[in-house]
Protein backbone atom coordinates (compact mmCIF):
# COMPACT_ATOMS: atom_id res chain seq x y z
CA UNK A 1 0.00 0.00 0.00
CA UNK A 2 1.16 3.53 -0.75
CA UNK A 3 0.39 6.17 1.88
CA UNK A 4 0.84 9.84 1.01
CA UNK A 5 0.88 12.84 3.32
CA UNK A 6 2.74 15.94 4.48
CA UNK A 7 5.22 17.05 7.10
CA UNK A 8 3.09 18.64 9.78
CA UNK A 9 -0.49 19.80 9.38
CA UNK A 10 -0.47 23.42 10.54
CA UNK A 11 1.09 25.33 7.66
CA UNK A 12 -0.76 24.10 4.60
CA UNK A 13 -3.02 27.07 3.98
CA UNK A 14 -4.62 25.66 0.83
CA UNK A 15 -6.36 23.03 2.98
CA UNK A 16 -7.83 25.42 5.52
CA UNK A 17 -10.11 28.23 4.48
CA UNK A 18 -11.34 29.76 7.70
CA UNK A 19 -10.50 26.64 9.70
CA UNK A 20 -9.64 27.33 13.38
CA UNK A 21 -6.19 26.08 14.43
CA UNK A 22 -7.83 23.63 16.82
CA UNK A 23 -9.58 21.89 13.91
CA UNK A 24 -6.72 21.74 11.41
CA UNK A 25 -5.67 18.17 12.19
CA UNK A 26 -9.24 16.93 11.83
CA UNK A 27 -9.52 18.74 8.49
CA UNK A 28 -6.11 17.47 7.36
CA UNK A 29 -7.18 13.88 8.07
CA UNK A 30 -9.96 14.31 5.51
CA UNK A 31 -7.33 14.60 2.77
CA UNK A 32 -4.43 12.37 3.80
CA UNK A 33 -4.01 9.08 5.73
CA UNK A 34 -0.61 9.91 7.28
CA UNK A 35 1.29 12.87 8.69
CA UNK A 36 4.85 13.44 9.80
CA UNK A 37 4.87 14.88 13.31
CA UNK A 38 7.65 17.49 13.42
CA UNK A 39 6.92 19.12 16.76
CA UNK A 40 8.36 16.06 18.50
CA UNK A 41 11.77 17.00 17.10
CA UNK A 42 11.83 20.32 18.94
CA UNK A 43 10.27 19.08 22.19
CA UNK A 44 9.10 15.74 23.51
CA UNK A 45 5.34 16.06 23.40
CA UNK A 46 3.20 15.56 26.52
CA UNK A 47 1.25 12.31 26.56
CA UNK A 48 -2.01 14.25 26.88
CA UNK A 49 -1.25 16.06 23.62
CA UNK A 50 -0.44 12.83 21.79
CA UNK A 51 -3.67 11.35 23.17
CA UNK A 52 -5.63 14.31 21.83
CA UNK A 53 -4.12 13.93 18.35
CA UNK A 54 -4.73 10.19 18.32
CA UNK A 55 -8.36 10.72 19.37
CA UNK A 56 -9.00 13.39 16.73
CA UNK A 57 -7.95 11.20 13.81
CA UNK A 58 -9.67 8.22 12.14
CA UNK A 59 -8.82 4.66 13.13
CA UNK A 60 -6.86 4.14 9.89
CA UNK A 61 -4.76 7.31 10.30
CA UNK A 62 -1.10 7.02 11.26
CA UNK A 63 1.77 9.23 12.44
CA UNK A 64 5.44 9.29 11.49
CA UNK A 65 7.01 10.75 14.62
CA UNK A 66 10.29 12.60 14.21
CA UNK A 67 12.80 11.74 16.93
CA UNK A 68 13.67 14.42 19.47
CA UNK A 69 16.70 16.47 18.42
CA UNK A 70 18.80 15.43 21.42
CA UNK A 71 18.54 11.81 20.29
CA UNK A 72 19.96 12.54 16.85
CA UNK A 73 22.79 14.90 17.74
CA UNK A 74 21.24 18.15 16.57
CA UNK A 75 21.99 19.62 20.00
CA UNK A 76 25.06 18.90 22.10
CA UNK A 77 23.23 18.15 25.36
CA UNK A 78 20.05 16.41 26.45
CA UNK A 79 17.86 19.50 26.48
CA UNK A 80 15.64 19.68 29.58
CA UNK A 81 16.49 16.11 30.60
CA UNK A 82 18.94 15.07 33.27
CA UNK A 83 20.70 12.50 31.10
CA UNK A 84 20.30 10.41 27.96
CA UNK A 85 18.33 7.71 29.75
CA UNK A 86 15.74 10.22 30.92
CA UNK A 87 15.58 11.73 27.44
CA UNK A 88 14.90 8.43 25.72
CA UNK A 89 12.43 7.33 28.37
CA UNK A 90 10.43 10.54 28.05
CA UNK A 91 10.30 10.18 24.27
CA UNK A 92 9.27 6.52 24.44
CA UNK A 93 6.53 7.34 26.96
CA UNK A 94 5.21 10.06 24.66
CA UNK A 95 4.63 7.47 21.92
CA UNK A 96 2.38 5.24 23.98
CA UNK A 97 -0.93 7.07 23.34
CA UNK A 98 -0.56 6.58 19.58
CA UNK A 99 -0.74 2.80 19.82
CA UNK A 100 -1.31 1.27 16.39
CA UNK A 101 -1.41 4.75 14.85
CA UNK A 102 2.37 4.97 15.11
CA UNK A 103 3.67 4.16 11.62
CA UNK A 104 7.31 4.68 12.60
CA UNK A 105 9.79 6.91 14.40
CA UNK A 106 12.00 8.91 12.03
CA UNK A 107 15.60 9.43 13.13
CA UNK A 108 17.06 12.14 10.91
CA UNK A 109 20.70 12.86 11.63
CA UNK A 110 22.25 16.29 10.94
CA UNK A 111 24.52 17.32 8.05
CA UNK A 112 27.64 17.18 10.23
CA UNK A 113 26.92 13.58 11.32
CA UNK A 114 29.39 11.88 9.02
CA UNK A 115 30.32 8.25 8.46
CA UNK A 116 32.77 7.28 11.20
CA UNK A 117 32.94 4.65 13.89
CA UNK A 118 31.67 6.72 16.82
CA UNK A 119 28.63 7.80 14.81
CA UNK A 120 27.90 4.24 13.72
CA UNK A 121 27.95 3.27 17.39
CA UNK A 122 25.51 6.07 18.22
CA UNK A 123 23.14 5.00 15.43
CA UNK A 124 23.26 1.47 16.81
CA UNK A 125 22.59 2.77 20.34
CA UNK A 126 19.55 4.77 19.20
CA UNK A 127 18.16 1.72 17.41
CA UNK A 128 18.58 -0.39 20.54
CA UNK A 129 16.78 2.18 22.68
CA UNK A 130 13.89 2.26 20.19
CA UNK A 131 13.90 -1.49 19.60
CA UNK A 132 10.18 -1.85 20.33
CA UNK A 133 9.16 0.45 17.47
CA UNK A 134 9.56 0.58 13.70
CA UNK A 135 12.31 3.14 13.14
CA UNK A 136 13.38 4.94 9.96
CA UNK A 137 16.89 6.27 9.36
CA UNK A 138 17.75 9.37 7.34
CA UNK A 139 21.25 10.71 6.87
CA UNK A 140 22.11 14.24 5.76
CA UNK A 141 25.81 13.74 5.09
CA UNK A 142 27.04 12.40 1.75
CA UNK A 143 29.80 10.31 3.32
CA UNK A 144 27.31 7.54 4.14
CA UNK A 145 26.56 7.04 0.44
CA UNK A 146 29.83 7.75 -1.31
CA UNK A 147 30.91 5.03 -3.73
CA UNK A 148 33.03 3.07 -1.25
CA UNK A 149 30.43 3.19 1.56
CA UNK A 150 27.04 2.95 -0.13
CA UNK A 151 26.62 -0.82 -0.06
CA UNK A 152 28.07 -1.08 3.46
CA UNK A 153 25.63 1.54 4.73
CA UNK A 154 22.66 -0.23 3.17
CA UNK A 155 23.80 -3.60 4.49
CA UNK A 156 24.19 -2.11 7.97
CA UNK A 157 20.65 -0.72 7.81
CA UNK A 158 19.26 -4.08 6.73
CA UNK A 159 21.08 -5.98 9.44
CA UNK A 160 20.03 -3.54 12.16
CA UNK A 161 16.38 -3.50 11.02
CA UNK A 162 16.21 0.15 9.97
CA UNK A 163 13.55 1.45 7.60
CA UNK A 164 15.28 3.44 4.85
CA UNK A 165 14.18 7.06 4.56
CA UNK A 166 14.77 7.65 0.86
CA UNK A 167 15.12 11.33 -0.01
CA UNK A 168 14.65 13.61 -2.96
CA UNK A 169 16.67 16.72 -2.26
CA UNK A 170 19.14 19.10 -3.95
CA UNK A 171 22.66 17.84 -4.49
CA UNK A 172 24.29 20.70 -2.64
CA UNK A 173 27.53 19.44 -1.17
CA UNK A 174 28.31 17.28 1.84
CA UNK A 175 25.13 18.29 3.65
CA UNK A 176 22.88 16.47 1.21
CA UNK A 177 22.48 12.87 0.08
CA UNK A 178 21.64 11.27 -3.25
CA UNK A 179 18.40 9.46 -3.95
CA UNK A 180 19.14 5.82 -3.17
CA UNK A 181 16.20 3.68 -4.29
CA UNK A 182 16.96 0.72 -2.07
CA UNK A 183 14.48 -0.46 0.59
CA UNK A 184 16.15 -1.95 3.66
CA UNK A 185 13.03 -3.28 5.39
CA UNK A 186 10.55 -5.75 3.91
CA UNK A 187 7.49 -4.15 5.50
CA UNK A 188 8.03 -0.40 5.35
CA UNK A 189 9.91 2.22 3.34
CA UNK A 190 9.76 5.98 3.85
CA UNK A 191 10.13 8.51 1.01
CA UNK A 192 10.63 12.18 1.90
CA UNK A 193 10.38 14.74 -0.89
CA UNK A 194 12.22 17.88 0.17
CA UNK A 195 12.19 19.67 -3.20
CA UNK A 196 15.17 20.54 -5.38
CA UNK A 197 16.03 24.10 -4.42
CA UNK A 198 19.80 23.80 -4.67
CA UNK A 199 20.35 27.52 -4.01
CA UNK A 200 18.27 27.56 -0.84
CA UNK A 201 19.44 24.27 0.65
CA UNK A 202 22.52 25.69 2.37
CA UNK A 203 21.21 29.22 2.82
CA UNK A 204 21.11 29.50 6.61
CA UNK A 205 21.90 33.19 7.01
CA UNK A 206 19.70 35.29 9.28
CA UNK A 207 18.10 32.12 10.65
CA UNK A 208 15.55 32.10 7.82
CA UNK A 209 16.41 28.71 6.34
CA UNK A 210 12.82 27.49 6.71
CA UNK A 211 11.68 30.21 4.33
CA UNK A 212 14.01 29.15 1.52
CA UNK A 213 15.28 25.57 1.90
CA UNK A 214 12.02 23.88 0.95
CA UNK A 215 10.85 26.52 -1.53
CA UNK A 216 10.05 24.29 -4.47
CA UNK A 217 7.07 23.03 -6.47
CA UNK A 218 7.36 19.68 -8.24
CA UNK A 219 6.24 19.78 -11.86
CA UNK A 220 4.27 17.11 -13.68
CA UNK A 221 7.34 15.40 -15.11
CA UNK A 222 9.04 15.20 -11.70
CA UNK A 223 5.95 13.75 -10.08
CA UNK A 224 5.73 11.18 -12.87
CA UNK A 225 9.35 10.25 -12.22
CA UNK A 226 8.54 9.63 -8.57
CA UNK A 227 5.33 7.80 -9.43
CA UNK A 228 7.40 5.22 -11.28
CA UNK A 229 9.99 5.07 -8.49
CA UNK A 230 7.34 4.47 -5.84
CA UNK A 231 5.64 1.72 -7.82
CA UNK A 232 9.00 -0.05 -8.11
CA UNK A 233 9.69 0.40 -4.39
CA UNK A 234 6.31 -1.14 -3.60
CA UNK A 235 7.47 -4.37 -5.26
CA UNK A 236 10.25 -4.62 -2.68
CA UNK A 237 8.61 -3.30 0.48
CA UNK A 238 5.02 -3.94 1.57
CA UNK A 239 4.07 -0.38 2.57
CA UNK A 240 5.48 2.85 1.14
CA UNK A 241 5.03 6.09 3.08
CA UNK A 242 5.53 9.26 1.02
CA UNK A 243 5.68 12.67 2.70
CA UNK A 244 6.02 15.99 0.90
CA UNK A 245 8.24 18.46 2.75
CA UNK A 246 8.46 21.17 0.05
CA UNK A 247 6.44 23.67 2.02
CA UNK A 248 8.45 26.89 2.28
CA UNK A 249 6.08 28.28 -0.36
CA UNK A 250 3.02 26.22 0.55
CA UNK A 251 3.43 23.75 -2.32
CA UNK A 252 3.44 20.45 -0.41
CA UNK A 253 -0.32 19.95 -0.09
CA UNK A 254 -1.03 20.62 -3.77
CA UNK A 255 1.82 18.35 -4.89
CA UNK A 256 0.66 15.56 -2.56
CA UNK A 257 -2.90 15.73 -3.91
CA UNK A 258 -1.53 15.66 -7.47
CA UNK A 259 0.56 12.63 -6.57
CA UNK A 260 -2.43 10.78 -5.13
CA UNK A 261 -4.34 11.48 -8.33
CA UNK A 262 -1.41 10.38 -10.52
CA UNK A 263 -1.28 7.06 -8.68
CA UNK A 264 -5.04 6.62 -8.94
CA UNK A 265 -5.41 6.11 -5.17
CA UNK A 266 -8.73 6.53 -3.38
CA UNK A 267 -8.20 6.24 0.36
CA UNK A 268 -10.93 4.71 2.50
CA UNK A 269 -11.50 5.70 6.11
CA UNK A 270 -10.45 9.34 5.89
CA UNK A 271 -12.12 11.85 8.19
CA UNK A 272 -15.39 13.28 6.85
CA UNK A 273 -14.82 16.46 4.89
CA UNK A 274 -17.07 19.49 4.98
CA UNK A 275 -18.41 19.92 1.46
CA UNK A 276 -18.13 23.19 -0.34
CA UNK A 277 -21.48 24.83 -1.17
CA UNK A 278 -21.16 24.00 -4.86
CA UNK A 279 -19.60 20.47 -4.59
UniProtKB/TrEMBL annotation:
Supply the name of the protein: DUF72 domain-containing protein
Q: Which residues cross the membrane?
A: none
SUPFAM superfamilies, A to Z = TM1631-like
Q: Which organism is it from?
A: Alkalicoccobacillus porphyridii
Q: Tell me the InterPro entries matching this sequence.
A: DUF72, UPF0759_sf
Q: Which Gene3D superfamilies match?
A: Protein of unknown function UPF0759 (3.20.20.410)
